[in-house]
Batch of 2 targets.
Target 1
Amino acid sequence: MGALDILDESTVAVQNVTVRYKTPADDDGARTSGRIARVARAALGQQPQVVVRALSGISFVARAGEQIGLVGQNGSGKSTLLRVIAGLEKPAKGQVLAESTPVLIGVNAALQPDLSGAQNVRLGCLAMGLTPDETAEAIPDVIELAQLGKAIHRPMKTYSSGMGSRLRFAIATAANPHILLIDEALATGDAAFKERSEKRMERLRENAGTVFLVSHAAQTIEETCTRALWLNHGRLVLDGSAEDVALRYRKYAWALAKGKPDRAKAIIDTALAEKKATSVLIEAPVKPLAHRPRHARASGTLLRETGDQ
Ligand SMILES: Nc1ncnc2c1ncn2[C@@H]1O[C@H](COP(=O)(O)OP(=O)(O)OP(=O)(O)O)[C@@H](O)[C@H]1O
């Protein structure tokens, strides 16, 4: 297949992204390093380290109107991919380009523990790129959604973790982002808040150009997404319709649950063999988009996606 110019509709391009974490491990965990290295480390009193490959060479292009589900086992790299798209994590290799600032629901706001909830709402909105006028307009709505009562005027450091999460969630929704990233694991709060937040999420999804949703439930992906990416040990196993990916992922999870690792591996191998190789070519930078200035970052770019590698 030849190259396809998709500038008009692309919202996020993920180009060959690799993320590694260097983390401390015990001696057994670090056994892969050489004997000399181990002896030297012991002599220097250093703790052994291992490198975790959280994402390996991930490439895809997301388009306006898509709701993209991310599925995969625990530790497969789903949250890391969301954080990289949100710009919260820098990949060791590769790059992410977005036509506007992606907002990760729940954790984006860098809040100040000594300031009150209300002061943090203002700060959070401005930090997400809202103008002072937009911020003033958004504040009552955010405070209403968070429903913290008089506690909204207390310093955030006095909040319970649930109260903090509610405020962060409410602030994140104020941006009405064109690229929305939702990590289901972040969903929090009591029943009443859940219902209010679900309604808000629905509205956000309707307005967003592209939604990314992390979920462990294949059914949620099937019901809410148009497309799905299956990650396994940091690799992209399959990129396809939500129905097809959810079906195969379900079969894989079932095989694992039934103690049939060979069957599970065969499902992954088949998916990998069928997957269309995608490479994202970035041809020439263009000016950031002018029509959504508060979201635009220096990322407007001519993209090409090819399927012939
Ligand atoms: N800050 C970190 N330091 C070291 N390793 C990390 C860090 N964050 C993630 N990892 C590792 O990277 C890999 C991918 O983690 P990630 O959280 O992206 O997986 P996930 O698919 O979202 O998992 P889950 O479904 O359990 O939320 C895992 O092996 C994890 O241990």
Target 2
Amino acid sequence: MSLTIGHIDYLNCTPIFTALQNSMDCSGYHFVRGVPSCLNRKLAEGEIDVCPSSSIEYGKYPDRYLILPELCISSIGPVKSVLLFSTVPLERLDGAVIGMTTESDTSVNLLRIILATFQGYTNRFERTGLPLAEALNSYPAVLLIGDQALRGALGRGDFHVYDLGELWYRATGLPFVFALWFVRRDTVAAKPAEVARLASDFVRAKKLAYDSYPTIASMVPERAWIDPDALVDYWKIISYDLTAAHLEGLKLFYSHAAALGVLPAVPEVRLYQGGRGV
Ligand SMILES: C=C(O[C@@H]1C=C(C(=O)O)C=C[C@H]1O)C(=O)O
């Protein structure tokens, strides 16, 4: 029996997936690539069994998923790839209509929390798929994530750049968890041995990746637009470990999201424990 695994099409997932695919037996794994919002939907509908997925997704359907331990995509301070590009300083954004990428489900809500809860602003938000320069002709500020944000920050433009990982850390002193590895509970029940092996393969892949950043950076096609040293710096700034402090940051995010009405309630965070607690 095989497992269908979502693979976020961003550089932040490259180290772990490269180590998994180069060093483990992946014959029982079928990979589906996409942007987070698209993979989140496929996971929710059962088209995917396991996926690094937007952390907010768990809060929407806590009965549907378990969280794989020891894995996440997070930052303790700046993250470099979740960025608000703004034609005016942040302090002048109260009341503005802000553009937001269609690819994100977590960071769009982090932006709401930063502007409404931390700053006390009132904003309207619109989704946009426009490239950065055009989007900034339509909106005073635009949120991008992933490779689009990395590329936007590398380009020369007349704008301010705010890193949402940094703004969260300044306000809370806690890590921010952008993505978690979710497994569907019905998959754990139907394929317990396969899920146990995959959970362990992913953690081993993460540890292998930590030792291989320069090698992986020298091979990726994205080196056409990002310098391998800059890529290694980016991977080093991302925190892939899920510690007690990360879980504390995650729970704080969920309670702010619930207070804003984005989540119906603060979910209980339940980790996969080899099939127990399904
Ligand atoms: C740090 C990042 O985290 C991401 C942000 C996500 C979101 O906002 O929904 C989802 C997955 C992660 O890839 C990033 O994309 O740059």
